[in-house]
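I am still getting used to backbone structure tokens and would like to learn alongside you. To get us started, please write out a protein record for me. Once you have written the record down, we can walk along the chain together.
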Amino acid sequence: MKRYDGTDDSLWAATVSRRYAGTALAESLSCDVAIVGAGFTGMRAALDLVEAGARVAVVDAGGVGWGASGRNGGQVNPMLPVFEPNDLLKAVGATYFERLAEVSLGSADAAFDLIRKYQIDCDARQKGWLRVDHCPKARARSRRGAALWAEYGADFRYLDGDDLKRLSGSPLYESGILVPKGGAVQPLSLVCGLAYAAEARGARIFERTAVSKLERGPGGWTLHCGPHRIAAAQVILATNGYSGALRPDIARTMVSVTPIQMGTDTLPDGVLDSILPEGQTIADTRRVIMYSRREPQQRFVYGGASLMGFGGKPVGFETLRRDAERTFPQLKGAAWRWRWGGRIALTEDRLPRFMEPEPGLLSGLGYNGRGVAMSLAMGKSLAERALGKPAEDLPFPVVPTDPHAFKRLQEFGAGIAVIAMRAADAMERRAGR
């Protein structure tokens, strides 16, 4: 089945500050590090590598920001998708728990520092993130999680009642966590800005350049790109939810899903006054989550899960519209001008995966809905490893390419799963559990 890969129907494509315009690879070349994938992970790695003096070539079958980096929700959330510290501790062990907790809790600050350092015009604002509870069971877990994470320095503030309703603007939610360090960016503008910064410092970036084969030899690696070759001492695969046949062992470690989003046209004065009035982004704790944000020029973006129709094109925008109006009744009758989607990668333990399946071959993927902040952190670590930092000193544990359990079943049955999860969410809300 053909995958849905359109980008020009997104609000981000319509409002990007400066779209990267590159060319395809037209000759064979050699470099120190070749990077496959021109999204957040790849471009951050490229930027750090060229600043350290490495010769870098970046290739992408589409272009800069063509994947999820240019189509995601743009929320910069400094929190891994685990409720309590002990969940992370069980997954990675004591040594990496402290490192990964520190990196994740500081990831939003690091992202906004990076934006300021390179003066990237991406409508960045760090006004906080609200994660709101869809039922009493989630409320109890959120309250406990906020208290436990506070012991490790997290500034997670539990809110309920009128305080929560005022900040969210939604009548549905009674409680939630405010994460003050969270925020938002225009994601396509950010990834293009990173590309321009890397290129200005010496990186060579090639769009519309697919890698058909990857070979390891005595002198390093060879990337086959049509009639041309790239010889590289090391390779970084930064393809995330678009990982495929190039390295099936890496692709099988995650499940690829396609969230969707909608963006309104400019709304009449007053419509957004009571929705997220202090500028926070918002997401909830449902299995089929919603995530949304205000935008400049009186626009609003609302996202959620998708079902896949014929041709691999996502469907479910009408369901998403109804959910938006139920969550925010102020939006009833709004004109939703933009509709789009992009693949993300989910891992079995809901944690990013840093892999080194062969000497000189590195890969990082699986951000599980935390892609803006954590992919930048991953790109930094990939660059450090390529520059010679010992694997045991990284914040991410280097893990084997173990397959995601039931990968094929989960991808094949994703539509049925979404329907079942929506039903479970609705039952919990109605039952007050």
